[in-house]
Amino acid sequence: MTIHKLTKIASTVRISITSKLDGIRSWSLQALETCPGSIESPGVLVDACKGCYATTGNYNYPNVKAPRAANKEDWQRVEWCDDMVRELMNDEYFRWLDSGDLYSLALAEKVLEVMQRTPWVKHWLPTRMHKFPKFRMVFDQMRALPNVSVRFSADSIDGSYMPGLHGSTIGPDAATFEQINGVSLCRAYEHDGKCSGCRACWDKEIDLICYPAHGKKMMRVINIKAA
Ligand code: SF4
Q1: Cα of 135 to ligand 1 centre, how many Å?
Q2: Among the listed residues 59, 57, 38, the one whose alpha carbon sits nearest the alpha carbon of residue 47
Q3: What is the 3 state secondary structure string of 10-30?
Q4: Helix intervals (H) in the chain
Q5: Whose CA is closest to atom 1 on ligand 1?
Q6: 159 near 210, Cβ under 8 Å?
Q7: Among the listed residues 189, 191, 193, 194, the one whose alpha carbon sits nearest the alpha carbon of residue 177
Q8: What are residue 201's DSSP bridge partners?
Q9: Is the Cβ atom of 209 under 6 angstroms away from ligand 1?
Q10: Cα–Cα dist 150/164, whole Å
């Protein structure tokens, strides 16, 4: 067994907290520039990313963008895994990438190491990087861990998904998902947009989470598609 000794240097890891997640903490990157899986063809985003919440509103404030930009450099430090493990010492749940994606295989391997070294934390990682075959092995290793839920995001906004591949999808409203068995509907819309104690996204036993669309930008995209 490998023994990892944590050194006592000041951490430059930047952690964010989004109001939706009941105070659960997150490590994030800047959206789009770290999201190669969001591109359908040159200059065209997949439908699910056209209304991305992380490209508008609060996410454009300098104090929100700065830590995401810093994290993009910071993860490349040799000590980053040690610092992340120390950061997560008191966390029960953790959300990877409230914005952005695992754009680099080296980053994905470091995130895997953090997950392996923090078995007391339940990790949720949503991603579109499964589209790139070189990432499959590291995602398989993450998924083999009892404390990790990796969800491959579907690109659609009409509720469609590939069974056995996707772990989440978006639909225009809750009614879209009523006929689908064995899935979990995100009901944050019933709780002022907050999880309010729900932890379904972290639950490895739940194969698919269905998100009713929310936000003006996403509704505009859905209306354009439907027109
Ligand atoms: S399914 Fe549950 S845990 Fe996931 S985002 Fe919705 S309310 Fe939160």
Answers
A1: 25
A2: 38
A3: CCCCCCEECHHHCCCEEECCC
A4: 47-50, 62-74, 80-87, 105-117, 136-143, 216-226
A5: 186
A6: yes
A7: 189
A8: none
A9: yes
A10: 13
pLDDT for 179: 72
Most confident of 5-14, 168-177, 195-204: 195-204
Q: Are strands 25-27 and 93-96 parallel, antiparallel or unpaired?
A: parallel
Q: What is the Cα–Cα distance from 199 to 51, expressed in whole angstroms? A: 24
Residue bearing the CA closest to ligand 1, atom 4? 201
Cα 132 from chain centroid (whole Å)? 17
Residue 39 identity (one-letter amino acid): I
Other beta carbons within 10 Å of 66: 12
Least confident of 118-122, 133-137, 141-145, 188-192: 188-192
Ligand 1 centroid–CA 21 distance in Å is 8
Query: What is the C-alpha to C-alpha distance for residues 204 and 207, in angstroms, rounded to an integer?
Result: 7
Predicted local confidence at residue 64, as pLDDT: 79
Rounded Cα distance between 134 and 132, Å, is 6
Sheet holding 148-152, edge to edge: 16-17, 25-27, 93-96, 122-127, 148-152
Q: Residue 35 in contact with residue 49, Cβ under 8 Å?
A: yes
Position 215 scores a pLDDT of 61
For ligand 1, atom 7, name the residue with the nearest CA: 195
